[in-house]
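Notebook entry, cofactor series.
This is the third protein in the set we're modelling with a bound small molecule. For this one the ligand is zinc ion. I'm keeping the input format identical across the series so the outputs can be compared line by line later. Sequence and SMILES below, as received.
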Amino acid sequence: MEHLSNALKAVFKEQDGDEVLFCADMLQKDNQYNRGEMPRPDTEMKESQIQYLLRKVNAYNTLDQESIVGQVVVSEWMKPLKSHKELKSFDLSVFNMLLHFACKTIYFKNNDPVCHYSKLLRWHNVSNLFGEDTFTTVFAASLDIVNKSKRKYFDWPAYIDHNNKEINALFKNKMADLHMHLKGSSYNFDISWLSIMNNITSMENVFTEVYNLRKTYGWDKDLYAKMYRACAIRLYLASRTGLLSENAQITSAQLSNIIDDKINNANDAIAKSAIDESVKRQLLESHSLEFLLSKAKETSKHFEDKSDYQDLDYIRIPRYNKDNVRSILSSERELMYSVFRLLLEGCDDYKDISSLFYSYLCYKVKFRNAIIQLNSTVGFHNFTLYEEIKDKFIAKRHKKFLYKAAIESFLINGKDRYLETRIVPDTTAEGIAEKIKEIAESVDEKYKERFSIILHFIKSRDERKDKEYRHKELREDIKKRAFAIHKFRNNAEYLGVGSEDYPLSGYVVGIDTANTELMCRPEVFAQAFRFLRYHNIKNNGRQRPNDLNITYHVGEDFYDIADGLRAVEEAMIYFNLKNGDRLGHCLVLGTDVRKYYSMRYNTICCTKQVLLDNMAWLHHKCKRLFGYTSLCYYLEGIFNQYFYDVYQGQIYQDGKINYELLDDPDVNNNINDYYQSWVLRGNNPKFASDMEESDDELEQEWDNCAENHEYGIEIAKFNINALELFDQYHKDEIVERGSEAVAFTIKESYVEDFYKLLEAIQEQLLKEIESKRISIECNPTSNYKIGEMSNYDEHPILKFYNSGLNTPYNKHDIAVSINTDDQGVFSTSLEREYSLIALAIERHQTEGFKNSPRQIIDWLDKIRQMSVEQQFDNDIFNYKKN
Ligand SMILES: [Zn+2]
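Returned structure with ligand:
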């Protein structure tokens, strides 16, 4: 099916909607009409047109390969499906390609589309690109015509179920999603699409804003114009399929006036004409998309028995007997279903409808790929680009639906479900209360007690506007937000809504951080985390909020494995992580050391500071794990070199040592002192020099957390040299010299020892996490898209927890959970994440380490149970009431 997937990518993702309209003579290009020279790609696509698109997919090495796939598209996939009598096919059409894919992967069960379990991975990867609805609606239309039935229900899950009975049974038990970010966990694409299709004329500035942010990353500058045309086409298709009430329908003449440049000429002519001004205005208005759209929206306000979600769309959103948040998805599904049906049953204007719908789908897929992270470039930078536009296109009054869908789409699937969602804390207590209230208000009464909130700070690079110490601006911002959280939790007056008033602070159960970690290490958050964790609630006992637990995103993105492992240990030391706390992702603990470094020819690219820190840290680890070996000697040599370079700029300049200054250096290059200074980095930058005393009670509480009082850290404090190095670390010239980038290659003769050391450290940290009973939150699809896995079965979860499974890895029993992270961005659900992992393990069995399906399901079920155990809020049904 690989070729069919590539062909689908070519025909639906690489095809431009404008091109389709041009070939159909509906749009001018370079002031020209097509006039029948290029065949319409939807029904008459030529092999050369497909080959051109296939080249853009870039999946084939030779032109001959592209050519043969192009031939198959024309001779087979665009043709009716002969062997499927249960399906009605199109005449020669690109839409048959969708049916070809759908009939191999999905079927209908109890009237809802369901995926064959064995095809789930393929379905997931391909439907991600186009949206599942593109396939499910064409399949439903095709089946229903043969069955002579007409579908009324379109509220199947956003990500369809599969037919593995045992795994489905597992989902009927208690389930918890512990790691999801509210903003990216909703029907992000679908709500954005409806928002644009209903409000396009007021969104030009949003498109311009995003274009300016994204132009260097290939954002289409004509995207607004394209969405404008898509919007007009949608209005017309809804008219043509009877989904708009008669007085709101538009004609094909009105449509072509809008999508074609002719409109400008026509409007110019009207504007210049000598007719009465008011008539002129009326005429101009009746031509405009804004006017037609507002008419459609106006009539939708008068629907009888309106769905609660009708505000989102001018097409009627069906009201089902089990009306729930999935209804949001149903109006667009019904539109697609109806157009597919119209085409399958035949109509007089078949050619035009077909071209219009094809261009509509191309526009939609284009937008989908623009806002959802789908391109194959791995890495966090890529991801953060998408992060910023997750909810940009959603009109403000529709945000409540975004929250609602994020929380309810998971909770409606079972009665014992619970989730912890993450939001950024505001800088004021009122701001935090307002935001939480807004979220709680958007959620249905029966789900109000089934979710909690984790407040996450955002990592960002050191701005260095104020150079007093590292990350000064961010540290101050964190402190402000930490104080806001503190005040918010102490104020029992912040109450929620509903039949009973829930104290809002009861929703908050933990703290976390998010965003790329390369330029922002755990040390920046340490004081705030200690401060919030040990926060004493004084609010006259009207409420009992949970103690705040800690979870921390770490080891997801790193310069190299040593750097990532060190970050994990920093989080553990600086935050005093303990049983009940969690770590997010930790991919670095399961990354294959040998594969990772050999792929990079044993060269590490990072900053001098990071390399220097890594050397001191690895040196310490090496001594502890293997004793003083020759590798220690090697690490020391590199350490000395970079220490001179970064810390002793005057002594070491232009690659030479100034021996006269060497007698009296500012700081000594003792690698052990340096290691001790690293241990202290979780302390406030000024703790060793000049902390001012404050009268303010809150400030005093904050100051009490300036130092990490754990045993080993207290000892480091008595090392004068380490203290001096700690102060130096925050000095501007050190920061500057240390931030220079280097490419460092491990010396050939030490490569094997280096690998062994890193493998030993991974193992040591895993054991430590296991014995401290800290748990790890895993997010398979997110990790697959951001990390370096080539398949789901390479996910480190198998190294963290493999009790009961046969694997080639060391045995570990770490408490893990499977979660979704950003399900709206990664197009997934918790059920899908569980299933993909199970399927991948079943499919990719290592010789000598086979597992039966039952073994895998039992293992999965243990993970489900552990997720429930690890939730921060263990008393969700009792404490929120007064
Ligand atoms: Zn996350």
